[in-house]
Amino acid sequence: MLYYLYELSESLLRHGLDSDFVKALNVFQYISFRAISAAVTAFLLCLIFGNRVIRKLISLKFGQPIRTKEEVHKLFELHGAKKGTPTMGGILILGSVLISSLLWARPTNSFVWIVLLATVFLGGIGFYDDYLKVAKKSSAGISSRLKLALQCVLAAAFTFFFWRDPELWRQAQALYVPFFKDPVVMNLGVFAFFLYLLVIVGTSNAVNLTDGLDGLAAGCSTTVAATYGVLAYVAATAPAARYLQIPQVPGAGELTVLCFALAGACLGFLWWNCHPARVFMGDTGSLAIGGMLGAVAICTKQELLLVIVGGVFVIEAMSVILQVASFKLTGRRIIKMSPIHHHFELSGWKESTVIVRFWIMSVLFALLGLATLKLR
């Protein structure tokens, strides 16, 4: 919205209204300025409205249900004090990202709207899931089948978004792999839908699984969002994209604004979510964050790079998959408890130690992901 101040300044200059103030409005044309401003705006929104949101969630008795089954008795002893801590705090992240993005991103950019659609859509699914958990006073929420069906709808929306534009569809059908400068597959065809579905389902669920300790998901999401903000900026800059031999995506630069808005919102939420947490993001936040990151990865043609940049999320998800597979096939668990952050807790690590070490890993994975831009 504020981008129009730049267009206003251009109009005033054409009509001879030349002044320092009018010239200063030119700053709104720069993605870098708007991205940083979006991050600061989202951070401040979380800081200003955090207390109010927390009090409202408490008054509505949206407390976090804690599993108390025998197999997680030890974990309950560790986290029993968290029972009743308000969940659904993801609405703070979601609201801050939306307001900041609408203020600072260029509203005529179609990438902005498809990514925001994915964010709101999955955030809505997460909100309904959280509501069911609170209403039933259990950890069981929306059925996995319904969740998958809704995620299929979103993947179909992405497929249609690219298909309606021949140039976008041509580029969307290419599959790029980190460390390779040329696409390994030139024409995915209808399999593009399944790629989008895999990215959306995988990313949203991986972030959801990571959201198990105070500040863990928010901290890791900050680094991933900032990294993809850089990737989006580079992908939209023709000289940089050619130099680094990555796919050039005209118009994707505006996603830098959205990514930095998400990074700022996660940092602002971390103010309230750091140990000991006063609020949890719940599925409302984790599914929205995962959906947004997956959507940006799809739009920038860096879907598989997300496996590296979001390495912590991948490790968390794989620990659950391998644990379930091992137990069903052999009757044994490969780790003490999944996701893997609980394994380290039960191994004697303090919660804060697990969180900070996973944050460090997230930064290292982000740097490794950026390094692949030169290793092609």
Structure description:
69% of the residues lie in helices and 0% in strands. The chain is an all-alpha fold. It has one domain. The two termini are 38 Å apart. The model is unreliable at 68-73 (pLDDT under 50).
List keywords for this structure.
376 residues; mainly alpha; 17 helices; 69% helix
Structure described in brief:
This protein has about 375 residues and is mostly helical.
Strand content: under 5%
Q: What helical percentage do the residues reach?
A: 55-70%
- Spans of at least 5 consecutive residues whose pLDDT stays below 50 are 68-73
For the CA atoms, what is the radius of gyration? 21 Å
**Strand tally:** 0
Q: What pattern of helices and strands is seen along the backbone?
A: HHHHHHHHHHHHHHHHH
Described by the principal axes of the CA atoms, the overall outline is globular
Overall number of domains: 1
Number of helices: 17
The main sheet comes to: none
- The separation of the N and C termini measures 38 Å
- Mean pLDDT across all residues, rounded? 88
